[in-house]
Design goal:
The chain is mainly alpha-helical. Helix content is 85%, strand content 0%. The radius of gyration is 14 Å and the shape is elongated. It starts with a helix and ends with a helix.
């Protein structure tokens, strides 16, 4: 599934940005990494799960992806990151969130 490739790319991008954020705020950098990892891991589990946990895992992935976006927004607002870099990764996350939403709630 392409969403899994997108999640992997997102984790790489967020971790690179988190390394920049860590120079200013280690806690925020750790949350960025944790949230992005959680989005990818739960997304993968949800995509491949056929039982009742599918929607739950996809919802967890959605929430973690949204948390990652907020962490990027905070880092951008605090000027820990160049605005263009943060915005680019947030745009990618918006696409991932849309796909995860469709996977979680399609009928």
């Amino acid at each position: 599934m392409r969403v899994l490739d997108s999640l992997e790319d997102m984790v790489r991008d967020v971790h690179q940005l988190a390394d920049q954020v860590a120079r200013h705020d280690r806690d925020l950098a750790g949350q960025m990494k944790s949230a992005s990892n959680s989005a990818a891991l739960n997304g993968s589990e949800g995509v491949w799960n056929k039982a009742g946990k599918r929607r739950s895992r996809l919802e967890d992935a959605l929430n973690s992806a949204r948390e990652t976006v907020m962490a990027l927004r905070i880092a951008r607002a605090c000027r820990y990151l160049p605005p263009a870099e943060a915005t680019r990764v947030m745009a990618s996350l918006d696409g991932i969130i849309a796909v995860l939403w469709v996977l979680a709630y399609r009928r």
